[in-house]
Structure formats: structure tokens, C-alpha cells
Amino acid sequence: MLDKNGIAKRIAREVKDGYYVNLGIGIPTLVANFVRDDISVEFQSENGVLGMGPFPYEGEEDADIINAGKQTITTLPGASFFDSALSFGMIRGRHVDLTILGAMEVAENGDIANWKIPGKMVKGMGGAMDLVASAENIIVAMMHTNKAGESKLLKRCTLPLTGVRCVKKIVTNLAVLEVTPGGFHLLERAPGVSVEEIQKATAGTLIIQGEVPEMAL
């Protein structure tokens, strides 16, 4: 199965030349480290950055240059900085081609829950609700199961929803899945992972058609 970097590396293959891409907090922030050098991509962070690069090497961090998760980042030539109002104007105006988010749960109909666990302190919902309401193409980066081994790909989400019927594709440590009207369509298996293992770890409807290829990373 994949680790967090492996998930990010697989998602980086979904990023196309000329895309404007928003990276959510967590695993999605790693995607910038794996995008091909021969394409031009603009990474946007909702705290007001356009033109993010990969994470800095140790000792080269600048505490004033951070992403929405307060991690230090690098910027590429031509990068720009602006206030949150302009950043959310870009998001709400549908100027972002691809949004990559983490999630605590995803339902088989594309619902996503990624901002709150009842009873736990949270600072706020952040920009996730704006992103899922505005984006045409949403990919979720997540672990297939929680720490207790319970599936996070469900028939229906049990946590408060961030958005409804909005997720298009999911990349986990076990698989790549597409959200379809019939459920989670299994597209690829992680290296060394069997279809049976994915079935066992998926609580929602899993659609398997023919031979399921192993991911190419």
C-alpha cells in the first residue's frame, strides 16, 4: 500500500499543463513536490498565494511564506500574494481547474465530510465549503480506513458534511476510485494490494469491472 507521499505522487499524475490547482491541508500539500517538470501549473492556497512550489529544504524555510495549513512553502518565479477576499474571489469565481482535498469520510454518492468531528475543538471550517461548492473537479486524498481499521469510504457520511455530490475521484493508500451514480468504481490498485483487500476496506458500494490494473507511479 501507499504512504502519504505515494498518494500525492499518484494524484500529481492528474494535474495537467496550464491548470490552476488548489491544494487543501494535509496530504494534498505534498502534490506540489511531484508534479512533472515539463508542465506549467499554478498552485493556489486560500490564505492568499498563487504560484506555490514544493516544500523548502531544511534550513531554507522562510517563516513568512506559508500555505493555508501554516506550513512553510517555496514560491515559483512570478508568484503573487494577496488577501483572503481576492483568494476566495478566485475560488468562488470558478477560476480553479482542480481542487485536491483531504477527507475524514466520503460517501458513495460523492458527499464529503472533512471539517469537523462533533465534540472536538475546531478553529472553523476554513475554505473547504467554498471550494467544494465552486470547484468542477475535486479529487480527495485520504487513507482508506481510520486508525481503528474502519472504512472511510461509506454508503453515507456520518460526520457533518462539507459538500454534497461533489467528489469526482479518490486516491487512497489502497486504490484509485471514481465516484459514479452506482458507487465507487475501482480504477486502480496500489502496488501489492489485492482487489479483495480493497473490498474488505470499503463500506460503500464498490464496482469492479474486469481486471483492475496496478497503479503506475
What does this structure look like?
The protein has a domain at 4-31 and 85-207: Glutaconate Coenzyme A-transferase, CATH 3.40.1080. The protein has four helices and 13 strands. It has a ten-stranded mixed beta sheet with strand order 4-3-2-1-5-8-10-11-12-13. The mean pLDDT is 94. The protein has helices at 4-12, 84-92, 128-134, 195-200; strands at residues 20-23, 42-45, 49-52, 75-81, 98-102, 105-107, 112-113, 138-141, 153-154, 169-171, 175-180, 183-189, 206-207. Helices cover 14% and strands 24% of the residues. With 217 residues, it is an alpha/beta fold. A hairpin with a 2-residue loop joins strand 11 and strand 12 (183-189).
* Class by alpha and beta content: alpha/beta
At CATH level 3, the topology of the domain at 4-31 and 85-207 is: Glutaconate Coenzyme A-transferase
Q: Low-confidence segments, ≥5 residues, pLDDT <50?
A: none
| Residues in helices, as a percent range | 10-25%
CATH architecture of the domain at 4-31 and 85-207: 3-Layer(aba) Sandwich
Strand content: 15-25%
CATH class label of the domain at 4-31 and 85-207? Alpha Beta
How would you describe this structure in keywords?
Glutaconate Coenzyme A-transferase; alpha/beta; ten-stranded mixed beta sheet; 217 residues; three-stranded mixed beta sheet; 13 strands
